[in-house]
Amino acid sequence: MSKLFSIKEDRSLYPEKNVEGKIDVDLSSHKYLKMWHGPQHPGITGNMSLEITLLGDEVMDCETHVGYLHRGFEKLMERRKYIQCFPLVCRVAVPEPDFNEYCFAAAMEELAGIEVPETAQWLRTLVLEMGRLSSYLMWIGGQSGAFGQGIVGQWSNYMRDSILDRFEELTGGRIYHMYIIPGGVRGLLPDGFKDRMEENLKFIESMMKDIDRVMFNNAVFKKRSVGMGIIEKEWVTKFGITGPNARSTGIPMDVRKDYPYLMYPKLDFEPVTAQYSDIYNRADVRRRDLLMSVDLIRQIMAKMPEKGEIRAETPNVLHWKVPAGQTYKRAECTRGEYGYFMVSDGSEYPRRINVRGPSYTHAVALLEKMIINCNLSDIAGLMVSLHTYPPEIER
Amino acid sequence: MGKINDILSPFTAWKHVVNEPLSVKEPLKREGADRYRGFHKNEIDKCIGCGTCEEICQNAAIDMVPVEGKETKDGDSGLRPKIDYGRCCWCALCVDICTTGSLSMSNEFKWIDENPDNFRFVPGAENKPWDDKEKGWKKPDYHLYNPERVEMHELKPEERDKSFIEIIHGYSKEQALLEADRCVACGICTATCPAHMGIPEYIKAIRNDDLEEGLRILYDTNPLPEICGRICTHKCETVCSVGHLGDPISIRWLKRYIADQNPSDKYKEILGTENIEKNGKKVAIIGSGPAGLSAAHYLSLMGYSCTIFEKLPQAGGMMRYGIPEYRLPYESLDKDINYIQSLGTEFRYNTTVGKDITIEQLHEKFDAVFAGTGLHLGRSTRIPGTDHADVYQAVDLLRDIVLGNEVPVKEKIVVIGGGNVAMDITRSLARLQNQKYGKVQIITTSLESEDIMPADREEIVEGREEMAQIIPGWGPVSIKIEDGKIKGLNVVKCLSVFDEERRFNPKFDDNQTNFFEADMIVESIGQGMDLSYISDKTKENLKLDPRGRIIVDEYFRSSIDWLFVGGDIIQGPDVIHGIANGHKAAIGIDNFINNQNK
User: Fold this and answer.
1) Mean pLDDT computed over B546-553
2) Mean pLDDT (chain A, rounded)
3) CA distance A326 to chain B (A)
4) Which H/E stretch holds residue B13?
5) Residue B107's domain spans which residues?
6) What is the 3-state secondary structure (H, E, C) of B384-425?
7) B377-387: pLDDT as tens digits
8) Shortest Cα distance from B225 to chain A (angstroms)?
9) In a domain, B441, yes or no
10) What are A24-73's pLDDT values in tens digits?
11) Could you tell me if B424 and B361 lie in one domain?
């Protein structure tokens, strides 16, 4: 059967690559088609675009274009007092804002020498795991949708909404939580929160079984993802790849383990890895990471204290002068290592804040390399499999 | 097998066909969570318009605007926050930092309106459907600024009850920095301070550890910071926005910190007053109290040569002869006065205007005259027995203590009065009793009940710590005298002091009586002015109001064009008012003299 439908590829007509690994494109030859993929394309993860050169339906060359979402947060923060940056940072990565809040607060607290109360640290850990869960649920819809399975997106959106409901009752906001305030957090768990959360987690677990059957045990999905978009192990250090993209190559790289923060040392978990990194394995690593997140939320809710101080005493936030110095605080988000580099000159305003969004490495340099010889119809699936969020590229 | 399974298993999704849809069917009816950060609410009567919400808002979504029915007054700017929902990012930091707790957010998040302008409104002033909603984001338990005051070290009662050593130690640098950090810099204090001192600015100078800048800001509006830093009536602290949900900022003690930390020999260099050009004009000032000193200071800066005529042997007026040393040590007083003297002001002590020199002579010799003669005549209750020799006036006794005259101290003393002067004489006499008899037997009684006693709270507390009995709420009826000796004071219960129109009209319950044993009575129910230094001839041209006070314009100029009058005799007993009057009068005198020369 398979022989009947297979088409023998004749690659003799394909252009030779030059020493830089690129082809010399002569558009006047009418062999090539140059087209823009995005920024208003449903297969693009957010507002960025790819300028691709096609030969037939195969990508010969690609240049990524970012800047559609540039809001200049890093610069804005230099003109705002520290506390005024707090409502700003969550906007750096829209679908997963909590890691910004945490890294910003942790950097400030380290420079100012503030000890965060234990209850607040537990709540921070909880919120970060909830953020991870909702972010993966958003990704899984995109990954399956990119290969034509709309149903998974519909299910996962509902699951994500149920987590957003929990965010809403805990933090007061659904998308921008503004919960991890420098010094601590802004509220204890509401009454009955754990029960409602457990209900959501059970629902998510049962739906994930359905998603297993519909997406991961699906011939179409396997056909299009297995062996597609492979990340070589040696690229990890070369490109600075982190997170599930790196873990799927077999390297157990996880900030939660490598640079323990918050209450992660008290939680029982192992980084999820795979043997080699193609689209399918990366998706599977994320699926298992998602389920681990469900488990971690349960562990946190079981271990955390019910009551306690939620915010350390800080100087008056209206004129909080953070002692001069610099620090880099990191956390493991769904895309990899998220980090804030903060420099203080001892004034009321941050001198420089630099955000390390993992999408910067994954969506620009790595994608440009991986996309060559990719079929036009697989570009969306490939991009989503790198799990990139353009807002964190552009800060 | 696996491959067939991969083809079949996706079809299991069909089982959901029989399930109910999960989506929210009527999203517009969905209620926000209990903590949801929705549209703002503001309890407009509780709000004081401090503008801290506007200050913290990083989007500049909040403007403080005047609203109908809210007037600017002490402790209330009259402004209320107007929120622009085109800018608001719903972070609720405005709610978290609100100094009064008036601002909150409802859990309402749906609002449909075709006019975009409607999305800018003043919560509380414009009625909205969510105004009665209970749920939403409330001011949390944690604090974005410290609501608790940094404790001030002071002498313990047993260390101070026999001596006149200063009680308050003053802040150390660390304490001052912590206290200064609490300020939200709203400026409600500046508006209320009679001298409109740049309070948030000098507190900022403390935070920046730039005490020289702090001193410059102090001297912009107040030439007596050492004094005010100790005994000012601190109206600023009464209205301090942080005081609504915590302790007000110790503005007075922070001022003292700046003044204490700057050495007096550097004042001229710091304040840039080393070379003041004289303009050749002369101003006479009667009385060296706060008003006179303030006028002398600001006139000296303008180049005038000032001469202060003081009846008593030293300068300071009531600040020296009325306020006990344990509250205001003489070296602090002298630091401020010596600086003003160093600017070229001449002091003529033991010179009584009206006796040693007439006011007409002053007019002839000087270009203008400023009188800040204060209230030095004690008022009497005039109850039966007050003509007895052992009934004294508090101001007279306080003056005698400073002058070193012999002060009569009996074993049992009753003080009538509930103001700060009454507390001063109570605590001074308690110290003297302790020195003489080794124990304190002094009762201080006032018409006012404890909650409305005009004395500062700490004075009452500290007085009690020093073993004085302070028994408020009794009205004096008569002094019991037997064999020519005072036995005590008969009093009746006082039910209320003021009538509904806030006029002094005490009501008594004659059935409830009491008797306070004493062999000496001190009256301290207020002071009157002595205008005898103004000759009858000059008085003819002087306009007085029905209550006998001199009528002045906004620059404290009386109906006689060369005579300016300020201080206690115009605005009642208060140092900071005197300072403000003196400053304003200095400007008035400058205008008057300049206009005269044209």
Assistant:
1) 88
2) 90
3) 21
4) none
5) 29-137
6) CCCCCCCEEEHHHHHHHHHHCCCCCCCCCEEEECCCHHHHHH
7) 888 889 998 89
8) 25
9) yes
10) 888 888 888 999 887 877 666 778 889 999 888 888 888 898 888 888 89
11) no
Rounded Cα distance between A368 and A365, Å, is 5
Which of chain B's residues have a Cβ under 8 Å away from the Cβ of A170? 35
pLDDT at A6 over 70: no
Range A18-28 average pLDDT:
79
Give domain status of residue B150, yes or no: no
Q: What is the pLDDT of residues B314-347, one digit of tens each?
A: 999 999 999 999 999 999 999 999 999 999 999 9
Residues B328 and B422 in one domain: no
**Residue B37 DSSP one-character state:** -
pLDDT for the residue numbered B30: 87
In A262-363, the DSSP E strands lie at 325-333, 336-344, 350-356
pLDDT of res. B3: 81
Indicate yes or no: CB of A184 within 8 angstroms of CB of B142: yes
Check residue A7 and give its pLDDT.
59
Do A177 and A324 reside in the same domain of the chain?
yes
Judge if A185 and A277 occupy the same domain: yes
The reply to whether residue A318 touches residue B145, judged by beta carbons under 8 angstroms, is: yes
What pLDDT was estimated at residue A1? 43
Residue A373, exposed/middle/buried by CB under 10 A (0-12, 13-18, 19+)?
A: exposed
Where does the pLDDT of residue B502 fall: very low under 50, low under 70, confident under 90, or very high at 90 and above?
confident
Helix then strand then coil, in percent of chain B rounded to 5, is 35, 20, 45
Interface-testing mutation among A162, A217, A316, with chain B (most B C-beta atoms within 10 A): A316
Of B90, B204, B207, the CB nearest to A173: B90
Could you tell me which of B390, B343, B144 has the C-alpha nearest to residue A311?
Answer: B144
| Chain centroid to CA B341 | 27
For the record, the structure tokens of B429 come out as 């006499």
CB contact under 8 A, B181 and A319: yes
Looking up tokens 């709540």 gives A123
Instruction: Give the model confidence (pLDDT) of B375-418 as tens digits.
Output: 888 888 899 988 999 999 999 999 999 998 989 999 999 999 99
Domains in chain A: how many in total? 2
pLDDT band at A8 (very low <50, low <70, confident <90, very high): low
Q: pLDDT-based confidence at B458, cuts 50/70/90?
A: confident
How far separated are the first and last CA of chain A, in Å rounded? Answer: 51
Closest residue by Cα to residue A393 from A148, A38, A6, A48: A48
Rounded to whole angstroms, the Cα distance separating A382 from A375 reads 10
pLDDT at B73 over 50: yes
Residue of B35, B94, B210 to mutate, testing the A interface (most A Cβ within 10 Å of its Cβ): B35
Query: Which among A117, A109, A121, A115 has a CA at the least distance from the CA of A325?
Result: A109
Q: Is residue B301 predicted with pLDDT exceeding 90? A: yes
> Is A187 in Cβ contact with B140 (below 8 Å)?
yes
Residue of B nearest to A159 (CA): B22
Q: CB-based contact (8 Å) between A110 and chain B?
A: no
Residues from chain A contacting residue B3 (CB–CB below 8 Å):
219
- Between residues 93 and 112 of chain B, which touch chain A (CB distance below 8 Å)? 93, 96-97
A222 touches chain B (CB under 8 A): yes
Residues A255 and A296 in one domain: yes
Cβ-defined contact of B12 to A213 (cutoff 8 Å): yes
How far apart CA B525 and CA B415 sit, in angstroms, is 9
Full residue range of the structural domain in which residue A16 is found:
1-69+358-395
Interface of B with A in 168-207 (CB under 8 A): 181-185, 204, 207
Q: How many domains does chain B have?
A: 4
Can you tell me the mean pLDDT for B498-525?
90
A295 backbone dihedrals φ, ψ, rounded to 5°: -65, -40
Distance from CA of B124 to the nearest CA of A (A): 22
User: Residues B587, B559: one domain?
Assistant: yes
